[in-house]
């Protein structure tokens, strides 16, 4: 079955996970059952440390602080799912609560 990366981008919160509104956390937790109901298997899911913990390796081997792309939104977490098609993977992305950012769905090779 095809696999898709479901990337969650959000504005970074000063307190991290502790600052996520309770209703957003509840919607995140509830998404698992809804995703399974679509016939989609979650292969892997992770939340990421704050962008300040990121290091980027440049072409010349120089290591710099922070993410490669500098925006007010950061990659907050990701899923890898097995879904029958892109439309179903997009349905998974729509189940995830979005505060200020967006969810990107990308087919994997």
From TrEMBL:
Superkingdom of origin organism: Bacteria
Full protein name: YCII-related domain-containing protein
Taxonomic lineage of the native organism: Bacteria, Bacillati, Actinomycetota, Actinomycetes, Pseudonocardiales
Similarity comment: family membership: Belongs to the YciI family.
The YCII-related domain, residue ranges: 7-108
A Pfam family recorded for this sequence: YCII
InterPro entries: Dimeric_a/b-barrel (IPR011008), YCII (IPR005545)
